[in-house]
Amino acid sequence: MGLSIPYNQFQGKFEVPDKEPTDIQIRSNKSILRFTKHLEQMQFTGELPVKFNIQQLKSDLETGMYFDSSIPQGFGVGSSGALVAALYAKYAVTPITSNDIMIGDNLAELKNVLAIMESYFHGTSSGLDPMICYLNLPILIKGKGKLDTVGLPVEQSNGKGAIFLLNTGSAGKTKGLVEHFLERLKEEGFRNMVRTELKKHNDSAVKHFLKGEVKPLVNSVKEISQLFLQNFKPMIPKNVERLWEKGLETNAYYLKLCGSGGGGFVLGFTEDLEKAKTMLEGHNLQVIHKM
């Protein structure tokens, strides 16, 4: 199981410079142009299961259009997903809209299209990041190929517990780490661990979160955090490794990867936010859900 939740702290939108473009705006424009040529080629070969208005997109790029984004790249919070979602929303000829998302296989079809598009950036993609950016809805992955929108537990403004983001201070390299994970899956022992232990605790965490059961959720995340430390060390940023161990030793908080790891943000879970803040003094925590 999996759960993807929109995080409105970060945003992105298309803009056109109203004066001489900055270096960042020029780089963004050129990057989108390269992606556009990739989409055009996929559309020509029939690999892209949706038609795009490529000529309009190219015309807009000639005006200097760029993606104005507050989303840090390589931090596991959907920077490429937001761009893919924005392109699909503006330039797909017949996009699936949020109004008809639950009709037939539209949800799975949308995920497939967005995954194919985002794979340009990472080599492979689940399509979930661009999908939640596009729909602005939490998506529950029930199992292989089974998706649904879902309601989230009410946030407890006075709750002691919290889910938070911890900034590692450096960007991760998603593509290489995804490839590393896929290589590790070829090892029988690692593959069995993912299919049994990790799956069990992951599914349990998702269920407890949706039910608002804080202690069982945190207990499940503790098991996940331990498994990650034992089996996913190359994906845990070096400057966070000691903090990761400290959380498990003190039970003040537990960390897990956000995205593919290697940098960016890591997710933190705690039953006592103030205690976690004390233990993580000097590190900026962004609370995303009080519980």
In short:
The protein is α+β, with helices and mostly antiparallel strands and 291 residues long.
Sequence of strands across the biggest β-sheet = 7-8-6-9
Helix-strand string: EEHHEHHHEEEHHHHEEHE
- Class computed from helices, strands and strand pairing: alpha+beta
Number of domains: 2
Structure description:
This protein is of the alpha+beta class. It folds into 2 domains: 148 residues, no CATH class; 129 residues, GHMP kinase, C-terminal domain (Alpha-Beta Plaits, 2-Layer Sandwich). The protein has 10 helices and 9 strands. The strands form 3 sheets. A 4-stranded antiparallel sheet has the order 7-8-6-9. The two termini are 21 Å apart.
Task: Please describe the structure with a list of short key phrases separated by commas or semicolons.
Alpha-Beta Plaits, 2 domains, 3-stranded antiparallel sheet, 10 helices, 291 residues, globular, 4-stranded antiparallel sheet, alpha+beta
